[in-house]
Amino acid sequence: MTDRATPAKNGTGEVRTDLEPLTTRFSALGTPVSATWLSGTVGDEDVPGPTTYWIDAVVELDPAVVQQLVADTDPQETTGSPAVVGDLEDSLPDGPLLTGPALDAAFAESGFTATAYLDQDDATVVLVTLGE
Question: Is 83 exposed, middle or buried (0-12, 13-18, 19+ CB in 10 A)?
């Protein structure tokens, strides 16, 4: 039996605030107010094969977009915490956080899978995504 650890998230550590790379990948964001995010690759960079990319983001949304996401996806409150990289932890909203399969699916596009957490009161979504 082997111990399979979660692959490490590798990146430059550059905290980004530009919106265009997020909005082109995740149309459900609409026209966000602001964002704080990081990205990089997953796993061992010395191993050949396809590269898997990650994006962790905390995005402040237009309140109308939040209301539409809630209406369309019926997310439920969770006690779970988003598995974002350490540099984003201070940016996480206070909650309560809502999540669910339909909310995740709303952000699963452009070759990315997503786990989404929505703070309805703060009009903020947290995205933990992987893609090729």
Answer: exposed
* Of 62, 65, 125, 64, the residue nearest 93 (C-alpha): 125
Residue 29 has pLDDT above 80, yes or no: yes
Give the amino acid at 16: R
Write the CB contacts of 43 (distance below 8 Å, at least 6 apart in sequence).
7, 8, 10, 52
pTM of the model: 0.88
Confidence of residue 106 (pLDDT cuts 50, 70, 90): very high
What residue ranges do the domains of the chain occupy? 9-131
Give, in degrees to the nearest 5, the angle at Cα 86 between 107 and 23. Answer: 25
Instruction: Using the predicted structure, report yes or no on whether residue 6 has a pLDDT greater than 90.
Output: no
